[in-house]
Design a protein that fits this description.
The protein has 538 residues and is mainly alpha-helical. It has a single domain, classed as Amino acid/polyamine transporter I. Helices cover 73% and strands 5% of the residues. The protein has helices spanning 2-18, 26-45, 58-73, 77-80, 82-90, 94-97, 115-118, 129-140, 147-156, 159-184, 198-208, 212-250, 257-273, 276-305, 307-322, 331-347, 353-358, 366-373, 375-395, 422-432, 436-467, 471-490, 494-506, 508-537; strands spanning 48-51, 54-57, 109-110, 113-114, 187-188, 194-195, 401-407, 410-413, 418-419. The strands form 4 sheets. Strands 7-8-9 form a 3-stranded antiparallel β-sheet, covered by helices on one side. This is Alanine:cation symporter family protein. Belongs to the alanine or glycine:cation symporter (AGCS) (TC 2.A.25) family. InterPro entries: Na/Ala_symport (IPR001463).
């Protein structure tokens, strides 16, 4: 690994020195130089284990297996307490939550400091439940809900939708666990600023179990991966895809077009992220409902306009989930993998990133935010991804393309042309509503912008964990982050994007280890919160 990274780094610096002397563009040269390491990293993170005649990614087994365990252990909290989660978001228990129960503090050391001397109990958080949910949802509901759902269906057929929904429902339980831990082990300084997320519950929580060194290693690994993921998949990829949509829709030309669009995104994002989580929350609580109404509204219009075909679409989903289309490779297991993989990539349940945003909530009961967190996969996967899937299936009722007939990730249409990702979704929308591709472009831009905002906060928290909480470190990260916003829109580096997306998935390994060690503490917090609710109701 070290030699491969070293060799490619030397190659990249060499290209930066000589890149302008060749006919090949500098971005293409960097891409080619970095690709071997990017492919190696992606293959490592998505390493497969042979099962049922198919190669199943180990990370997928960990995610689904962990989610199933948490669902059973917590008594199907994702279903039984779904109404309670809605009530918490609405603020029904806000006043009660501001008076947490008095109990003997658990004293344990982190980096030589007593945790109870670090945390200021005079502050309970920075944002309300809805703002925390909106910020976290804005980080998960993104381009994957539009583009990658189309890829999953074109490869795995309509049946992939069934497994996608199932994985989303199970992922709700994982989000409940990680968001509860995020609040339980957060730090709050004297000014009321919150520092939370997997870095803290991995280091503090596992230290409480008596494995301080393991906790520090896992926390540091998570923080490093999180910073890298924020620059790439959470930022550069988003601005790149948004810029591509704007350029295509408006027919823009010129070498500087992408840079200009990226600069506009960076300026708008900078105005928001410089203000910290409170300003991010205020923006996302307005942007998220708007983009949800915009995109979901258009999808529902299409679905209701073809209501006579909806029952056939659902019948096809259930049938194809267990008896796939003949052209779909991998059979039943292949379709299941496509659905699970799409859900895992989309809602990030198990990656721990959303726990960073949820940690900032103003509450004295960690389990209350755990309940709020479980709504995320439902919104992201069960609702938004499923609506996208239904629209695409309805569009393809006449057989515009054959499911499973895919070349390099693109569906092969009957006329011989190829269509992939967001373009499949765009065509599906346009076929039902003339001009709706413009709505889709706006939705892509909003999804990209909101994701950039949320991941700026995730990456900043990880950065501060690694380098300290000074204003200099704060400003340094934000400047570098905004530079990646411009860079992502200006150039196309497939290898860097491939590497960054794999880094987001890599977060699962340290995070899930922590969840499987610390889940008993979640049980205690859940019992405390249920007692609070019981008193309220009686």
């Amino acid at each position: 690994m070290v030699n491969l990274l070293y060799d490619n780094t030397l190659a990249i610096f060499s290209l930066l020195h000589t890149g302008t002397t060749s006919n090949q563009g500098l971005d293409e040269k960097i891409n080619d130089a970095f690709m071997p390491f990017a492919v190696w990293w992606e293959n490592l993170i998505l390493a497969e284990i042979p099962m049922f005649g198919q190669g199943i990614p180990l990370i997928l087994i960990i995610l689904i297996g962990g989610a199933l365990f948490f669902t059973i252990y917590f008594g199907f909290v994702n279903v039984r307490h779904f109404p309670t989660a809605i009530q918490v978001v609405r603020g029904k228990y806000d006043e009660l939550e501001k008076n947490p129960p008095k109990s003997k503090p658990q004293v344990y050391e982190v980096d030589g400091d007593l945790v109870d001397t670090i945390k200021d109990e005079g502050h309970l958080g920075e944002v309300n439940h809805f703002q925390a949910l909106a910020t976290a949802v804005s980080g998960t509901v993104g381009l994957g809900n539009i583009a990658m759902v189309a890829v999953a269906i074109s490869i795995g057929g309509p049946g992939a939708t069934f497994w996608m929904i199932l994985a989303g429902l199970l992922g709700m339980s994982t989000k409940f666990v990680e968001c509860t831990l995020g609040v339980k082990y957060r730090d709050i300084d004297k000014e009321g600023n919150v520092f939370g997320g997997p870095m803290y519950y991995l280091s503090k929580g596992i230290a409480q179990k008596g494995f301080s060194k393991l906790g520090k290693i896992l926390a540091g690994l998570f923080a490093i991966l999180c910073v890298g993921a924020s620059f790439g998949g959470g930022n550069a990829f988003q601005s790149n895809q948004a810029a591509a949509q704007i350029i295509e829709r408006f027919g823009l030309t010129g070498n500087a077009t992408g840079s200009i669009i990226g600069a506009v995104f960076a300026i708008l994002a900078g105005i928001v992220i410089i203000g910290g989580i409170k300003r991010i929350a205020k923006v996302t609580e307005k942007v998220v409902p708007f983009m949800a109404v915009l995109y979901v509204g258009a999808a529902l219009f299409i679905i209701f306009s073809k209501i006579e075909w909806v029952d056939d679409a659902f019948a096809l989903i259930f049938k194809s989930a267990f008896t796939p289309e003949a052209t779909v490779s991998g059979g039943f297991v292949g379709v299941m993998i496509q659905g699970f993989r799409r859900a895992a990539f989309s809602n990030e349940a198990g990656a721990g990133s959303a726990a960073i945003a949820h940690s900032a909530v103003n509450t004295g009961y960690p389990a209350s935010e755990g309940l709020v967190g479980l709504l995320e996969p439902f919104i992201d996967t069960v609702l938004v991804c499923t609506m996208t899937a239904i629209v695409i299936i309805l569009f393809n009722m006449d057989g515009v393309f054959a499911y499973g007939n895919v070349i390099e990730g693109q569906a092969l249409l009957n006329d011989g042309s190829r269509l992939g990702g967001v373009n499949i979704t765009s065509m599906a929308f346009e076929s039902s509503i003339n001009g709706s591709s413009w709505i889709l472009m706006l939705a892509v831009c909003l999804f990209a912008f909101s994701t950039i905002l949320s991941w700026s906060y995730y990456g900043l928290q990880a950065w501060k964990y690694l380098f300290g909480r000074s204003r200099v470190m704060d400003l340094t990260y934000k400047i570098v982050y905004l530079m990646f916003t411009v860079l992502g829109a200006a150039i196309t580096l497939d290898a860097v994007i491939k590497f960054s997306d794999a880094m987001i998935l890599a977060l699962v390994f340290p995070n899930m280890i922590g969840l499987l060690i610390l889940f008993p503490y979640v049980k205690k917090e859940f019992i405390n919160y249920k007692e609070l609710i019981f008193k309220k109701q009686n």
